[in-house]
Every structure is written in C-alpha cells, then in structure tokens.
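DM from R.C. (forwarded with permission)

"hey, sorry to bug you on a friday — could you get me a structure for this? deadline for the figure draft is monday and I only need the backbone to look sensible"
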Amino acid sequence: MTNITRTKQSNKKKWIWISLSIFGVLVLGLGAYIYSLYSSLQDTVTVMHEPIEREHSEKRIEKVIFEDQDPIAVLLMGVDERGNDRGRSDSLIVITVNPKTNSMQMVSIPRDTRTEIIGKGFQDKINHAYAFGGTEMAMATIENFLDIPIDYFVKVNMESFKEIVDAVGGVTVNNTFEFDYEGEHFAKGEIFLTGETALKYSRMRYDDPRGDFGRQDRQKQIIKSVIDEGASFSSLANYGSILNVIGSNIKTNLSFSEMMDIQKNYKEARHNLEQFQINGKGAKINGIYYYVVSEEDRKALSTKLKEHLEIGGENVTKR
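My reply, with the result:
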C-alpha cells in the first residue's frame, strides 16, 4: 500500500469521524432541546390546570378512553376577567372531535341565546351562566342546551388574546368584507394580523351585516389559524414565549397526560373542520334582547353533534 493510498484512507476515516461527531452533537443537542420543551410544557400545563368537581359528564354512559379514540367535546370560552371580577363569557364555542373520521365540528353559541341556566332554574342569556356560577355552571348549561356531553373546557382570558396571537407570530385570515374598526382598516381578502389587530378584528359586530354571527366567524378564523400556527415547526423556536403566554392566560381541566394522549390519538382531526351556525331570531322579552332558538332548530343541531360524537339517540344520563 502506497503512502498516497494510506493518506486518502486516513483522510476518509477522519471525515467519517468528524461527520459522526457532528451528528452526535446534533442528536445530543436535539435531545436536550426536546427534554427542555417537554419539561417546560409540563410546567405550563400544571399552571394551566383548573380541575372541576365531576369526574366526567353526566351525559356520558362511560368515561372517555383516548386509546380507543372515543370522540370528545370541548367548550372554548373567551372571558373578560379583570381583577377580582369573574366577568362573563364573551365567546362560547363547542368543538367536537372524532379521530375515527379525522374530523372536527365547531359551533359558536350566540352569547344572548335564551336558555335555562342550570343551577338557577330560570331562563336567561346563556353567557350569564359563567357570571352566576363559573366554569361548571357554564358547562352544565351548555350541556343542557345542546343535549350533549361537554368533556373538557378551555378558558381564554380575552384581554390577553393579542398576546397569544403575537406568541405564534401573528395569523393570516381571509376577510370577507372591507371594514374599519377602532382606528384600524381591514381590507377584503387575505390579511395578516398581529395580536392587537386580531383582537379588534374579532370584536367588531355592529357594522357587520351578519351581526354577532359575523363576529363569531372571525373569532373561529383566528382560533383555527392560531392552532395551525402553534402546530407548525417554525413555532418551536418561540416555544418559550408561547408557553409563558399560555400558562398565564389559559385554564383547562385537561391534565398533562390527557393532552399527550389527545396529541397522539386525535391530532389529524384538525385538518378537517366543519362549522355550524345556530339558527334563531332576535326578540325582546320584558324589555331585554335575547336570541331565541326554536326547539326544532335546537334538536336538529343536537342531532348533528350527537352523530359526530357517536352517542346517537341511545345516550342516557348517568347519575
């Protein structure tokens, strides 16, 4: 073997070891990063966790099993909490998730919807349930109105909504009509929103020809975009800021292990989202404005949601 051959082989081995060393450092660095992310996420969820008294919804015969991919229903509440004031639920959105069909259904409930407030025994605006009895009364009232189980809740402080949008780097939405609101101009078509403009975009309703329904649709646009941005790889670089904002401004009864199980078994469902609108009409009762939903329309919506949750007509209340 010549000296030239030995030198070539030596250089080849050297580059192999250098490449392996670089790969090893990258793997160790990635491992440390993943551990840091996992640990930070666990700490954040601990801060977010807000348990409720009941073990599971009374409208379920059996408890949800994530490994069996049982469909679930989640209540999203946007609340205006300031200081010691509990406030009211400004936004109420129910999302049903069926991993077997890889699909989600989303329905916004107008805050002025007239229904029985469970635990109070009288009819009132549905968003007052939270003001009267907090999260559990809101969940029970919405369960009664839709006649479906509400398994989990996610409560977002709307005053911090802009921080959440900024934490994921802003969102892009498709605006259906041009309008101005609180000093901001929103052009028709695809627009990019920062946290501050997203909050304004989601709150305008009086100049919307569809009123509260138009506002609800804009809120759903932003929620979906936040979910998509938060799930993207690029957001990992900013995970520290995202987790800080989430931990400070979002509460849920989901535990860390439950979130991991949902991520594992339900994540593909977010790509197929169907949205529903609650049919009704405005009416004044004793001088107060309500959104009144007929029994026929309420049952029709309930049936759709039950089918998606695979509970059908056989669902009974478990005491």
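R.C.: lifesaver. The CA atoms of residues 174 and 190 lie 4 Å apart.
me: no worries. Helices lie at 3-48, 128-146, 161-167, 195-203, 212-231, 239-249, 256-266, 295-309.
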